[in-house]
Design goal:
This protein is mostly helical. It has one domain (4-79). It contains four helices and no strands. The chain has helices at residues 4-32, 36-43, 47-57, 68-79. Helix 1 crosses helix 3. It is elongated, with a radius of gyration of 21 Å.
Length: 83
């Protein structure tokens, strides 16, 4: 895994090759969840290179969101008088 110094170096190398706009596009594509192959095709690199960039520039966060209908049931059940 890359440390802070090597992350910055990798980011600078990326900007040198693809520009600031390219870095922003890569980060947006990763945030949108585009596949590594789609990103690789856009930047004309391998999926492995995209995986390396992804690991160097950030990390994935998984979020579990409860559906509003389920939250509503929970609220209703809390408000109902006990039997």
């Amino acid at each position: 895994m890359a440390d802070g110094t090597s992350r910055a170096r990798i980011a600078r190398n990326f900007v040198d090759r693809y520009g600031v706009g390219g870095l922003q596009r890569l980060l947006d594509a990763l945030a949108e969840g585009l596949s590594g192959q789609v990103i690789a095709d856009e930047f004309q690199v391998s999926r492995e290179r995209v995986r390396q960039w992804k690991n160097a520039f950030g990390h994935s966060v998984t979020l579990y969101q409860v559906h509003p209908e389920v939250r509503r049931v929970l609220r209703e059940e809390h408000q109902s008088p006990p039997m």
